[in-house]
Amino acid sequence: MSTGRDIQGRIYRAGLFGTRPTVPTSYDELEAAAQRRMSAEAWSYVYGGAGLQSTVRANREALDRVRLVPRYLVDVEQRDLSVDLLGRRLSSPLLLAPIGVLEMAHPDAEYAVARAARELDVPMVISTQGSVAMEETARTLGATPRLFQLYWSRDEDVVRSFVQRAESIGADAIVVTLDTHLLGWRTRDLDLGYLPFARAEGIAQYTSDPAFRALVEGRVATPAQGRGASADAGEVRPSLRQIPAALRALSSMRRHWPEAAPGSGSGSGSGRRRVGLGDPRPRAAVETFLDVFSRSDLTWADLARLREMTRLPIMVKGVQHRGDARLALEHGVDGLVVSNHGGRQVDGAIGSLEALPGVVEEVDGRVPVLFDSGIRGGADVVKALALGARAVLVGRPWVYGLALAGEAGVRAVLEHLLAELDLTLGLVGVRTAADLGPHVLAGAA
Ligand SMILES: Cc1cc2nc3c(=O)[nH]c(=O)nc-3n(C[C@H](O)[C@H](O)[C@H](O)COP(=O)(O)O)c2cc1C
């Protein structure tokens, strides 16, 4: 793996020939460049948080409040970023956070991300709301470690099927996201009237799933049955003026039904089979998804059912209270992710980093604690590890890289993060990521 100096050197050498990084190293520039590139809907969906966006701000404020205190004349010539996680040695403490609907950022979506992850050996947490079926993403990842993030569906056959598929793609763990059993009040998306899933974006794990497809076929066969309240309550008949938008939405649904995907079906010369205009399944798939996406009646005791479904380690993502860390341990989880979903769920909440020390203390080394929400640079990773995180999940930054330059953009963002992490580690006087601890933080003795 390239060191921070290698990456720095490459950028400066290119500068001698007048070439500047196409993907900015400075986070503000990265964000601004991505905003210029992305549609208003995609930008709002990725950048936005819940309500007044105050948790998004709190995530950064919490990271900014923690300060590093460098030490010098320590031999840090050979640095080592590797960490242990779930019986594996990872080459760095970075993982790609599960991010849904990547097609909004770039048409290559997970294909581009998985290729970049593979090149840099950065594990990927594959999202339930992927734009690409998990088997395809896994194939693209090659031997790169992958975990599967689970949104616990209202339909247990779908849950079971997702878990089995995660096993068969070689996932190292199931990461159950706790914080999104309801969708937060996301004002930016609401003001655009934009929910990607309603256009069948980000539901590829479902439309590729036999259990989910059986639900869709059942719905089509017996339209009155099996519907929750959500499906038809929002039924709107378009006025003349609204027809073009409604047709675009319908066409998106048809495009996302797997039989319409390139390379699917047999004997179609172009590799793309037309899904007939009268085929009710694409629309039924969206309605079925909206019905089964999530449930709010689960309790800690339900984890036992998931445990029966799989021998894979189970992690929970979204822990913010040490009491929940205690309950998670009591219910036998194998790891925790301290996260507030990047401030997208509860407005007015604490910054995620504020939750980390209490959770780490509660867990007391029994299982690994991972961290996300607000990681923007290598120094942030150093801070989270110093406070006891084993590794961090990186979210929005690489999505912006994806929007700017596809695979190369994801790769550039990750390389920049790894470079800054490596350099910061050395500059604070610590040789290995595993040696980071509170001694590098202000306030330590
Ligand atoms: C556009 C977007 C989509 C996301 N989709 C998912 C998802 O499908 N599953 C999940 O568990 N978390 C999802 N998250 C949350 C991330 O996994 C992670 O917790 C969050 O991005 C961390 O915040 P940060 O990006 O500000 O650092 C999503 C976040 C964003 C920004």
Descriptive key words:
single chain, alpha/beta, TIM Barrel, 2 domains, 8-stranded parallel beta sheet, two-stranded antiparallel ribbon, binds flavin mononucleotide
What's the layout of helices and strands?
Blueprint: H1 4-16, H2 27-37, H3 40-47, H4 54-65, E1 83-85, E2 88-90, E3 94-96, H5 109-120, E4 124-126, H6 134-141, E5 146-150, H7 156-168, E6 174-177, H8 187-192, H9 204-207, H10 210-221, H11 229-233, H12 243-256, H13 281-292, H14 303-309, E7 314-319, H15 322-330, E8 335-338, H16 352-363, E9 369-371, H17 378-386, E10 391-394, H18 396-427
Parallel strand pairs: 3-10, 4-5, 5-6, 6-7, 7-8, 8-9, 9-10
Antiparallel strand pairs: 1-2
Helix pairs in contact: 1-18, 2-18, 5-6, 5-18, 10-13, 12-13, 15-16, 17-18
Bound molecules: flavin mononucleotide.
Flavin mononucleotide (FMN) binds next to helix 3.
The total count of helices amounts to: 18
Question: What is the name of the CATH superfamily of the largest domain?
Answer: Aldolase class I
Name the strands of the widest sheet in spatial order. Answer: 3-10-9-8-7-6-5-4
Number of domains: 2
Unreliable stretches (pLDDT < 50, length at least 5) are 229-233, 264-271
What shape does the CA trace take? globular
Number of separate strands = 10
CATH third-tier fold name of the largest domain? TIM Barrel
| N-C termini distance | 34 Å
Overall mean pLDDT: 94
- Topology as H/E string? HHHHEEEHEHEHEHHHHHHHEHEHEHEH
Bound molecules: flavin mononucleotide
Gyration radius, to the nearest Å? Answer: 22 Å
Please identify, by name, the CATH architecture of the largest domain: Alpha-Beta Barrel
Give the amount of beta strand, in percent.
5-15%
